[in-house]
Amino acid sequence: MPLLLLALFIGVPIVEIAVFIQVGEQIGLWRTLAIVIATAIAGTILLRLQGLSTLRRAQQAMAQNQLPLKEVFDGLCLLVAGALLLTPGFVTDALGALLFVPQFRAGLRHIIGRYLLAHANIHTHQHWQQQQSHRPNPHGQDNGDIIDGEFEEVDETERPGPPPKPGSPRSLR
To answer: DSSP assignment, residue 133?
Structure first.
């Protein structure tokens, strides 16, 4: 992983400089700079529009007691897309523009989801009250109180002396 990051930090700027030189030779310096500035502005506008839309969808999902996993993934993709479009360069602009396309994000989400299911160790945790709400209460009452406490199992055969009387403090241990 560190070698991949090193290759990206060295390789991406080299590729961007090469593409800048090629584009600059074809259309000229000022048009090249205008395109770079225009993509940064367009990226900012797209990020704002799609980001707010994604935020509204996430809020709706949470209001319906659903995890907004799709929306969180889309938001992360939009964040990366915005950063790529603000970075000067044609290659990063192309990658950033792809991340703004909902169909591309859906395909990427599917690929990453399949990879995670195949290779990741995923644990889930369900809240205790949700688990308990599906179990019948043996006393027929449910006041919603949660009692936290500690207990210790005591083996009566190891205890010296006569057995405790019912209701005594020793019998409640």
So the answer is: T
In the block, which residue shows the tokens 């409640």? 172
- pLDDT of residue 32 exceeding 90, the answer is yes
Determine the Cα–Cα distance for residues 146 and 136; give it in Å rounded to an integer: 15
Query: Residues 6 or more apart from 19 whose CB is under 8 A from it?
Result: 89, 90, 91
Q: How many residues does the chain have?
A: 173
Cβ–Cβ under 8 Å, residues 21 and 29: no
Among residues 12, 42, 36, 11, the alpha carbon closest in space to that of 24 is found at 36
Angle (CA) 63 67 70, round 5°: 110
Percent of the chain at pLDDT exceeding 90: 39
Which tops the pLDDT comparison, 129 or 102? Answer: 102
Structure token digits, residue 111: 């690929």
Instruction: Taking residues 48-55, report their average pLDDT.
Output: 89
- Cα distance between residue 54 and residue 110, in whole Å: 18
Average model confidence (pLDDT) across the chain: 81
With a CB cutoff of 8 Å and minimum separation 6, the contacts of 116 are 122
pTM over 0.70: no
